[in-house]
Amino acid sequence: MSIPVSNPVPHSAGPQWLSTEQRRAWLALLSTLATLPREFDAPLQRAAQLTLFDYNVLAMLSEQSDGRLPMSELASRTAASLSRLSHVVRKLEGRGLLSRSAHPADGRVTTAELSVFGRQLVEQLAPEHVEQVQRLIFQRLDATEVEQLDQILRKLLSGIDQNQWIFRAD
Question: In the 8-state DSSP scheme, what is residue 18?
């Protein structure tokens, strides 16, 4: 199905169709969002039988000095529902990469903690992963474009969810 490019009817009578430029940008964004995970999944699968999402869960924990985050915060940092995160954490826990326990200060809160083996795996995978991020994204952009990309993505994200953890991390 093709998306109409011009506005065949006034805005009040129907949808605001995409302009030619908007359609091009939308399709480029959609294609990028669909293609990037596949490009990042493949080497992680080969090296450690992990998906990009699995790796991101471990990486978010590894960025904490104690390797711990409440599950709700980990869900926020990985843009996942608690249900999806719980499923992945259970799988990673089964592989000995992390563990779950009650939060020491509040037993109602479940905390995920990176294991020694999990930290070692992230440290082993990180150099190749970062090189791939550089190769697929940042080596293709100059400094101005990196800044513009950051501004554009933050603007889009703030329109979707102003409470995203990334805005608290600044």
Answer: P
